Amino acid sequence: MLIIRNEDFEQLSVFDQLLPKSCLELKGELAVIDKILDDESLLTPFIEKLNSKCGRPSIPLDTYIRMMYLKFRYNLGYETLCKEVSDSISWKVFCHIPVCAEVPDYTTLAKLTKRFGEDTLEKLNTLILRKALEKKLIKARKIRIDTTVIKSNIHHPTDASLLSDGVKVLTRLVKKVKDAGVAVKSEFQDRTRSVKKRILNIVKFAKNRNNEAKESVRKKVKELVEITKDVLHSANKVLTMAKDEIKKVKNKQRSSKAALIQKLDDAISAVGKIIKQTNEVLKGNTSIPDRIVSIFDQGARPIKRGKAKAEIEFGRKVALAESEEGLIISSHVEEGNPCDKTLAVQMVKKSIDVLNKVPEEVAADRGFYSSENEREIQGLNVKHVAIPKPGKKSEKRLKHERQHWFKRLIRWRAGGEATIGLLKRKYGFGVCLFHGENTGIWVNLSIFSYNVTKLAKLMVQIC
């Protein structure tokens, strides 16, 4: 059952009345943010998504939104967040939780976040921006576009480690299927110790850089491939037997057992791909399209960024559009690693939809340049488009890029790197702890927390 506001918070208890008034009053940043989030219209996307009068009461929406803000504002885990809110009177007041009441369980917060999904949180960000426009806190006359990589929470992938992970996952899932009472009579040998021995040998050989050590590593990887093939073959037999048995099950446990079998099926498919790509590498072919870099997050891509610290990052590319006031207007998590120039027009159109107005100026780096992009963006009634052309330029192009407005926009565009750095350093944008399609949820919550904090600072400056 959906609860919009915590009615118990409005009524002070006897204990609350004994506390000094200063304890129950919000100060500084939290007071301004509480005022921003107090707008009931911001809850509309959540009500549309989960408007149910059945079932047990959920966390009040105003409490949920405020707790999610604190989580990403201070880079806290769900469990740590609940402990911190429980220990702090001011955070309890901010989250609209009575001082004597218990804080919602962290598992409930996690489940509710996944249930609301990316679309709901994107609508929340859109509403916040439109409210800021209505109150004339922002003008959004110009936007800058850039891309970055949000890393997946995975270890550095090697062929050996991927094979090892595959064997562990298959072994674990087969055990769960058997514990659930399905395919109990099927034969399956645990080969994790054999895999571990070979991984330790590879680590020992990898310390040396000579040809003999490299050949020893290749030999051990081949052994790992054979072990993984055996495990995969056994897992396939378990899967076949489990699918036959599940057809006869008619009780309430059928859905949970079917979900386990589906997980095993997906893992078998992924491990099969890992074996194929490892065989390709052993043959000398290192250029493999759609390479799996983690069995736990199969959508993560190796993205070359050319940075000194990490030349290749493993995760997803995210496109961002930022206003002149420093707010993130729109974002999009990309599948694979598309070229930046394919994203320029898409991000401008998305920003126009969010703001319900056309920006006067658009700036982006040279990776977004194409003559077609310039024409299309100008065709959207954007007055100035500043995207430098890479490579050799004609006299006409040089003259165009030497104009005062063009140079001004290019200088301003460079500030977008600082915003991305701030998002990664303070708002959880550096590493995504969600996997797969849920990356969009993480991105939107991070942007929500950043935008609300930025708006609070703008409100203080104006007042």
UniProtKB/TrEMBL annotation:
InterPro entries: Transposase_11, Transposase_InsH_N. Pfam families: DDE_Tnp_1, DUF772. GO terms for biological process: DNA transposition. Residues 29-115 form the Transposase InsH N-terminal domain. Residues 308-438 form the Transposase IS4-like domain. One of its GO terms (molecular function) is DNA binding. The keyword Coiled coil applies. This is Transposase InsH N-terminal domain-containing protein. Keywords: Coiled coil. Residues 203-252 form a coiled coil. The keyword Metal-binding does not apply.
